[in-house]
Write a structure and sequence with these properties.
200 residues, alpha/beta, 7 strands, globular
């Protein structure tokens, strides 16, 4: 009987060890944004919600006014959000990104992703996402796109016109239509899943 118990213990020890390692895998996700009218903040909250849905992910949601470079250093993944300003990143977001160091590969292999809000179709959403992504690539970060081919560059929302061109029967109560908020959640979840998987 003692031999059987010892054999069971030897079989279970590696399994228990794996379980402990899985519990210890944690990842810090920083969602940082600028929002003048509340649209990008609403998207940021959706991105953070998606990231928080992932077990093992700790999420820090900050405006660029409150974020510091030390927050970027502490994160395993950084998701940056901006409204579209004439097909460009909003100046406060660019200023925050410009504060990131590139010397000594300080941000190398951190995960990065982008989300934006724009007033209309073809108002520069993808250009603005690419501006953020380019900066991340310069910092040698690993860029994460959205979860499918409908949002390959991250997540974006159109907040100033109806993409279908048809009058809405019901006016949206939210600053950002639910359809786009779901895209934000999906991006946050994808980034957090990868961050947890890559955590040491």
């Amino acid at each position: 009987m003692r031999k059987v118990a010892m054999l069971c213990l030897l079989v279970l020890l590696p399994v228990l060890a794996l379980g402990q390692n899985a519990e210890q895998k944690k990842a810090n996700v920083l969602v940082v944004y600028y929002s003048a009218k509340g649209h990008t903040r609403a998207m940021a909250e959706a991105v953070a919600k998606g990231a928080r849905s992932v077990e093992g992910a700790t999420v820090n949601l900050l405006s660029v006014a409150d974020a510091k470079v030390s927050d970027v250093f502490a994160a395993d993944a950084v998701i940056v959000g901006s409204p579209v300003y004439k097909a460009n990143v909003a100046p406060p977001v660019q200023e925050f990104i410009n504060s990131w160091p590139i010397k000594d590969n300080a941000l190398r292999d951190k995960l990065g992703a982008a989300f934006v809000t724009g007033s209309g179709i073809s108002a520069g959403e993808e250009l603005t996402q690419m501006d953020i992504i380019h900066a991340m690539l310069v910092c040698q970060m690993i860029v994460v796109g959205g979860p499918n081919a409908q949002q390959p560059l991250g997540a974006s929302a159109i907040v100033g016109e109806n993409p279908s061109g048809k009058a809405n029967e019901e006016k949206e109560q939210s600053l950002v239509p639910e359809y786009y908020l779901k895209k934000g959640e999906a991006l946050g979840a994808r980034v957090a899943q990868l961050a947890v998987r890559m955590a040491k």
